[in-house]
Amino acid sequence: MPTEIRFPFVIGPDGAIATTSDPDKQVRQRVYNLLGTEPGERVMLADYGINARSSVFEPGDEMIADRLAEETRMQMDVYEPGVLVNSVRSVPSPSGSGQSVVAIDYVRREAPSTPYAYSRQSNTAVIGAGGTVTEVIRG
Asked: Which CATH number fits domain 4-108: 3.40.50.150, 3.90.198.10, 1.20.1090.10, 3.10.450.40?
């Protein structure tokens, strides 16, 4: 499994940038980043992110939560192809609280517990040191 920089960014006890090789933590970090990024924040990926901040003062909590749930599902499909999204649903918040909660139920496609039929739909390319590419073809 490849190593990724840990999020939030921290310096480890050894003085180096903290990393993680745990695939579950890596997916969780990427989902958190996707949800915490507003479209347009990343110059080279202008469509990356969820349009949540613009909804802060909008009326209609249920409608906004449903829109955020749909946008989350679409973004997960595009930017997290190694994840099988089982459901994205909006969780009602107290009226006027200004909060929208989106619950995402997902599994990693290559996780041991994921059904084989689902894992066959995902190909992964890993670019290693020196530019070597390793591709894992499912199916």
From this structure: 3.10.450.40
